[in-house]
Design brief:
The complex is a heterotrimer of chains A (280), B (295) and C (452).
Chain A: H1 11-38, H2 42-47, H3 59-67, H4 70-100, H5 107-119, H6 122-135, H7 142-166, H8 170-178, H9 183-194, H10 196-212, H11 215-220, H12 229-233, H13 244-278
Chain B: H1 8-36, E1 39-40, E2 48-49, H2 53-60, H3 63-95, H4 101-109, H5 116-126, H6 133-139, H7 157-183, H8 187-195, H9 200-211, H10 213-228, H11 232-237, H12 249-259, H13 263-287
Antiparallel strand pairs in B: 1-2
Chain C: H1 3-29, H2 33-46, E1 54-60, H3 70-84, E2 89-95, H4 98-110, E3 117-120, H5 124-131, H6 139-144, H7 146-151, E4 161-162, E5 165-166, E6 169-181, H8 182-188, H9 196-208, E7 212-215, H10 221-236, H11 238-246, H12 254-266, H13 279-287, E8 291-297, H14 300-307, E9 315-318, E10 331-341, H15 348-359, H16 361-369, H17 388-396, E11 402-404, H18 414-428, H19 434-448
The chains are: A mainly alpha (280), B mainly alpha (295), C alpha/beta (452).
């Protein structure tokens, strides 16, 4: 042993790491398999799902990219997600601040009202919403997607953020008041920065949910130039057969941005967590 | 201070953007869905008012609905137990980990950021008798079961499988939220308890558990509601089949509404689903008492 | 994290998008021939509407550019031709995938934005639109243009006619038949079976020789129910379908129970994984040479040849065997794809012109010669150009005496069709006996159909 064992490695530590590594393998293996499918041919996938491909079919990606028009789709998805993210975080934290921090009679009722949104399956409002949007020509436009996306992201944002605002130490706000800070100042200068941890979590969830949303995007958007990424992934499913390899290639492409955004934000969450731990 | 936080104008201003959006995009369509649930409607011809007939059928004369309700309740219980236990376990372990904390956390949370539809498809491939897991088992001479097709038993095997996959995908959220809660506990509390001679288990029981109770309430509510209206994975793995044995409320709603065009009946199911979610939230709020600790 | 950081994140993501699109276009140039074919398809959309063109919309259940389905590619060609022609019309295509097609179509119709022309399955699916009174009656248009009307194959409008009114126009049809691997048949020393007993015998011999006799998908229920449909018809003939519709025949009658029992008998010859296999996997079992026979619609031809070109030379076709003492063995399951015109279209002429383009000789020849589907007009097809299997199908259809639809598309409603499909799956799974299974279907009919 190179490492001079001045202290014994505890058995529990070994067990814990073994467990964590095994679990990590369970988490990673399916994703690796998904990647391997995306560089095979369809016939190979069915004949020998676990073998490595004979020739790595990198062109699956370029073909998927060009026929799925993924360049347009990625831009559309990005616009929709970015706008939704900013708006839902802003509106959500504002409402959460009012509910969690401010004192008024109806705050509980309003909270329940917002939480109702989490309990509604999107399918049950699909047709009525489409009819309403069609009347005001909001279908077939990105705005028509953004509005429901914000709405569906709000409950989660509010639900998590209310807790954060409630648990904030009131001394901070009191001293700010003494300094003549307005209620808006309290929100933007004290509430928001302190709620950072929550913002990263909800922001990530909002981004990811909307990046992956299919049903509304499929039904609301008809124009090819306005389709979002998940919709284009379905291009590869044909009426009588499915082009699996290209679909998985497209899925891999679609997943890359989420993973990048995720890796940026996930480390921020840790920073936020450490900062959050100092409070009080 | 008090006055500042009672400012009616500011409250209105804070609530307004979200509130207005909510009313237009959710409340109006829901109200409409309530009305539709009392109708016989196929979206193409005008709705025909039939009163509570749809609801009557749901509870008295629809064997698939019985399966769906049973499966939904099972799925919710299963998710709740596995995600709470595993999520809290991982959060506690990872929070105390010195090396690799971020790496493991990021790996376990990864499936949460991927599309359920894509993952559902991926797992229907992996669990296919010819394609994935069973091929691996065959190497060890084990003949794997029909993971997604075996319908024997009160709770058929596919429901356990889907439940496990759902836990695989979503336990990261629970873990992450618990980690946030644990990180929010001042380390001075632990230090004090160690000075008082407490061991790790005691400090977990006496400090961690009470202080993460608010978060427990959050994660339990989230898991329950999420599981009750769960759709993506099931739809992409089994489509509710074989022969409706893995149907849950949301997939049944989808079938009735979008395969059979019985929007009235589908709306009635969604109202039932909504009521179940409300009931669960109510029960959670009544049973889990959260005391406020000033930290 | 301040605003700066948010900006940085946004920027980095934008840049990454730029990077990706950059490398996308580069690889595109170097892409394999498959990409060329699709780029050609992509040209469809670039034909812009000329000024003053009357614009109409057409809704389809597959993406015209990304599709690998040869039939969909032919639809794309037709649309391209129609838009390029100097006819004063331009058609805009709305596409979805099959899964969301009906949802989206119904939402559009409910919102009063129905497409001018859309594609539709025959049977209860189409009935629903006809009954909702959103489909244009084409009888007069067809009658006023006898040349067009007479060009269609006889009897093709049968399933598209409601109360004597023709409500849709077909674009192609597919027939369900048995594909077999001639190599395996030779090795095993069996001949093409004509009757059910011979068929079972062939299956047994192939199984003894170590191959899976038959590949089928119970994971995609309609695949299994197609065989069930054939058995029901071979047992009781056309009276069976008519009978259950008006209540004169019961699902629990001997012919239905016998059909279900035969299906259960046959299930011992299915490939071991049939319960979990999807339609695509079942077809792959056949073209990979693992199974000797595949019962599928003729659309499978393009899938087979596309994935395993060598299969074309060793893939034979025969019609579903007859049952001794049963009904007419020369009836075929066929399925048409149909175009419906919206009742509220403002541009009837443009819609009719589009229908004519689809049913015209150029499109129909390509349907047969390239896509391997059956044309719906009487047109000279050069079978040397077409996939070999297509001529076999045409050949065996010469003795055809009648056609019927997929069972699940011939019943009272989509739900009734699903009930039939699912019951058949339950029966082969051994979850329920044929008698009890048919009794369940009967119960469904008693409650939901006769009682309506």
């Amino acid at each position: 042993m190179r490492r001079k064992s001045r202290k014994k490695i505890p058995v529990t530590k070994v067990l814990i790491y073994t467990f964590l590594i095994l679990l990590a393998v369970i988490y990673i293996a399916p994703l690796v398999w998904m990647f391997s499918v995306s560089v095979k041919t369809n016939a190979e996938v069915f004949a020998s799902p676990f073998k490595l491909p004979e020739i790595i079919q990198w062109e699956n990606f370029s073909v998927a990219w060009s026929i799925g028009k993924l360049n347009i789709a990625i831009v559309n998805s990005f616009i929709v997600c970015a706008v939704t993210l900013l708006c839902s975080i802003l509106f959500g934290t504002m409402a959460a601040f009012a509910i969690g921090r401010m004192r008024w009679k109806l705050s509980g009722t309003i909270m329940t009202y917002f939480l109702l949104g989490m309990m509604i399956p999107v399918h049950c409002i699909l047709i009525p919403l489409f009819v309403i949007f069609a009347k005001v020509s909001l279908n077939n436009s990105l705005l028509g997607l953004i509005l429901p996306y914000i709405t569906f992201s709000l409950p989660m944002t509010i639900f998590i953020m209310v807790g954060f605002f409630k648990n904030m130490p009131s001394e901070l706000f009191e001293s700010a008041c003494m300094d003549g800070c307005s209620i808006y100042g309290c929100f933007f200068r004290i509430g928001l920065p302190l709620a950072k941890t929550g913002l990263f979590v909800t922001g990530l969830m909002t981004f990811v949910n909307n990046w992956n949303e299919l049903l509304l995007a499929m039904v609301f958007i008809s124009d090819v130039s306005k389709k979002t990424l998940p919709v284009t992934l379905t291009y590869f499913v044909g009426p009588y057969s499915t082009n699996y390899v290209q679909m998985f290639a497209a899925i891999v492409i679609a997943v890359i941005p989420t993973i990048i955004v995720y890796s940026i934000f996930s480390n921020q969450i840790v920073e936020g967590l450490t900062a959050g731990a100092v409070k009080g | 201070m008090e006055k500042l936080f009672r400012d009616k104008k500011a409250i209105c201003l804070f609530i307004a953007p979200g509130g207005i959006l909510f009313t237009i995009v959710l409340l109006v369509p829901i109200a409409y869905a309530f009305y539709i649930s009392m109708c016989d409607w196929n979206a193409l011809t005008p709705p025909k008012f039939i009163g509570f007939e749809n609801y009557l059928k749901i509870f008295t004369n629809d064997s698939i609905m019985k399966t769906a309700i049973k499966n939904s309740l099972f799925f919710t219980t299963f998710s709740l137990v596995t995600q709470q236990v595993l999520g809290l376990f991982l959060a506690v372990i990872l929070s105390n980990l010195v090396k690799g904390k971020n790496l493991f956390k990021n790996i376990y949370y990864l499936p949460c950021v991927l599309s359920s539809a894509a993952l559902g498809l991926l797992f229907s491939f992996l669990l296919n008798p010819k394609m994935g897991l069973n091929q691996v088992l065959a190497i060890f001479g084990v003949e794997g079961p029909l993971w997604l097709m075996d319908v024997k038993g009160f709770i058929p095997l596919p429901m356990w499988v889907i439940g496990t996959v759902a836990t695989w995908q979503y336990v990261g959220t629970t873990m992450m939220l618990y980690m946030a809660a644990i990180a929010g506990i001042p380390s001075s509390l632990y230090e004090a308890s160690y000075i008082d001679g407490a061991n790790k288990w005691q400090s977990f029981k006496n400090i961690t558990v009470p202080l993460i109770k608010p978060m427990a309430k959050t994660t339990i509510s989230l898991t329950c509601i999420g599981s009750l209206k769960f759709f993506d994975l099931i739809y992409n793995m089994t489509q509710g089949g074989p022969n409706h044995k893995t149907e849950v409320l949301a997939t049944q709603l989808y079938n009735e509404g979008f395969s059979y065009f019985k929007y009235g009946y589908a709306s009635a199911i969604s109202v039932v689903l909504l009521c179940m979610c409300l009931l669960v939230t109510f029960v959670i709020n009544k049973t889990i008492k959260v005391e406020d600790y000033e930290m | 994290m301040g605003m700066k950081k948010v900006l940085a994140v946004l920027l980095s993501t934008v840049m990454m998008t730029g990077l990706l699109s950059g490398c996308g276009s580069k690889t595109e140039e170097a892409a394999a021939p498959t990409a060329d074919a699709t780029e050609e398809g992509a040209a469809t959309e670039e034909v812009a509407a000329a000024e003053g063109d009357v614009e109409i919309t057409w809704m389809f259940w597959d993406d015209l550019e990304a599709t690998q389905d040869i039939m969909s590619q032919q639809y794309a060609e037709t649309i391209k031709r129609f838009n390029e022609a100097d006819n004063g019309y331009h058609v805009n295509v709305i596409t979805t995938n099959l899964e969301e097609y009906d949802t989206k179509l119904n939402a559009l119709i409910a919102a009063g934005q129905a497409p001018d022309v859309w594609i539709c399955n025959p049977g209860p699916n189409m009935t629903q639109y006809v009954e909702a009174d959103v489909v244009m009656d084409l009888t007069d248009v067809l009658n006023s243009d006898s040349a067009w009307k007479d060009s269609f194959t006889g009897g093709i409008f049968e399933r598209l006619t409601y109360d004597g009114k023709v409500m849709g126009v077909p674009t192609n049809f597919a027939a369900a038949c048995v594909f077999y691997n001639t190599e395996i048949f030779e090795k095993t020393g069996v001949a093409v079976p004509k009757t059910w007993d011979e068929f079972m015998d062939v299956c047994q011999k192939i199984q003894d020789a170590g191959y899976a006799p038959l590949t089928i998908s119970a994971g995609t229920p309609w695949c299994l129910s197609m065989v069930a449909g054939y058995l029901c018809d071979r047992e009781g003939g056309p009276d069976n379908l008519k009978g259950v519709a008006d209540g004169s025949v019961k699902w629990t009658d001997a012919s239905y129970v016998n059909a279900a029992t035969k299906l259960l008998d046959l299930s011992k010859y299915f490939q071991p994984t049939y319960l979990g296999d999807s339609n695509d996997q079942a077809t792959a079992n056949f073209y990979n040479g693992d199974a000797a026979m595949l019962i599928q619609g003729s659309w499978a031809i393009s899938q087979i040849n596309g994935n395993a070109p060598e299969m074309q030379d060793k893939c034979g076709v025969f019609q579903f065997p007859g049952i001794e003492g049963g009904s007419d063995p020369n009836r075929w399951i066929v399925k048409t794809d149909n175009l419906l015109v919206s009742k509220n279209t403002k541009n009837v002429d443009a819609c009719i012109a589009l229908l004519k383009e689809f049913t015209g000789e150029t499109s129909q020849k390509a349907t047969a010669e390239i896509a391997g589907k059956m044309p719906i007009i009487d047109v000279e097809v050069d079978y040397s150009k077409a996939p070999k299997q297509l001529s076999y199908v045409q050949e065996s259809m010469k003795t055809l005496t009648g056609t019927f639809g997929f069972y699940n598309e011939s019943l009272d409603s989509v739900e009734a069709g699903d009930k039939f499909d699912n019951t058949m799956v339950s029966i082969v799974m051994g979850e329920i006996t044929p008698e009890d299974g048919m009794a369940e279907v009967q119960k469904f009919y008693d409650e939901n159909v006769y009682n309506k």
